[in-house]
Amino acid sequence: MLKVGVLGAGHLGKIHLRLLQQSEKYELVGFYDENADYAEKIAAELGYHRFDTIAKLIHAVDVVDIVTPTLSHYKCAKVAIKSGKHVFIEKPIATTVAEAEEIIALAREYGVQGQVGHVERFNPAFQAVRDKIENPMFIETHRLAEFNPRGTDVPVVLDLMIHDIDAILSVVKSKVVAVHASGVSVLSQSPDIANARLEFENGCVANITSSRISMKNMRKSRFFQKDAYISVDYLDKVCEVVKMKEAPENPGDFDMILQNAEGERKQIYFDNPAVAPNNAILEELETFAEAIQNHTTPVVTLEDGTEALRVAYQIIEAMERQK
């Protein structure tokens, strides 16, 4: 088992602590949080060992799980990597692309593994259809959330939209060549609602909408490709795959047949895969342990996290140009 320690015991940090304690792939050694009074309270209430310095925690573990505010990701990762420790970093990987690129360089230099916490890659609905998404040419996503002051220190692009950016980049194997975006600050100093249009070199277009001032929560993506439509509901963890094939000469009474203007006839059918329930956060942490132990590539690499951050900032810059 790999010895692991958690940096940051906030809302998400406590979830990581609980899951790591349950995991059969890790031995949870303890945690560090810079708020000493809060850390003492967590240690007393939940029974986790509390380290009083980051250095002591890093020295005691094989893997450092960084769940601190984004502003400190780079600093924490740098110290851990230079100590020869593997790092799991919550999304976004860092505050700037330059910081993210240095994290990549350091990991290579010190020979350690790194993974970024883009948890939607492990959502069971996305996993169920991942292999069915082949060369999508139009993608539409909506990620809407009710207002929560937590996270409003950054634009909604870095808070929410980056989940969909990463998922899209994982299925579109082409370079982003154009970015158009607009955003509005309603309750925060930074944009609370944003829409972006990504154009890829291969002709694919992605239309992404994110809001943190919605009346209801929604996390849906739709992928359109040759002879197929695929939808993913990350919130309700359901998916749908609608496909088309050449219509049979003698269709059955219940076959769904469409005919286009050119007279071509297609049969519509459903190919909905089973969705296997999982705990996405636990799975992302445990697949990282497997990557370390087997010397394989993590599911969400440091490079993946950096590319998602790069595109996120291109969207933010596009919004700035609209002002």
Map the helices and strands.
Blueprint: E1 2-7, H1 11-22, E2 26-32, H2 36-46, H3 54-60, E3 63-66, H4 73-82, E4 86-90, H5 97-110, E5 114-117, H6 124-129, E6 138-144, H7 156-171, E7 176-184, E8 193-200, E9 205-211, E10 218-225, E11 228-233, E12 238-246, E13 256-259, E14 265-270, H8 280-294, H9 302-321
Parallel strand pairs: 1-2, 1-3, 3-4, 4-5, 6-9
Antiparallel strand pairs: 6-10, 7-8, 8-9, 10-11, 11-12, 12-14, 13-14
Structure description:
One of its GO terms (molecular function) is nucleotide binding. Pfam families: GFO_IDH_MocA, GFO_IDH_MocA_C3. Residues 2-118 form the Gfo/Idh/MocA-like oxidoreductase N-terminal domain. It is a single chain. By secondary structure, the protein is of the alpha/beta class. The chain is 34% helix and 28% strand. The chain has two domains: 2-112, Rossmann fold (3-Layer(aba) Sandwich), CATH 3.40.50; 121-276 and 310-321, Dihydrodipicolinate Reductase, domain 2 (2-Layer Sandwich), CATH 3.30.360.10. It contains nine helices and 14 strands. The chain is globular and about 75 Å long. 40% of the residues are buried. The mean pLDDT is 94.
What is this entry, summarized?
The protein is 34% helix and 28% strand.
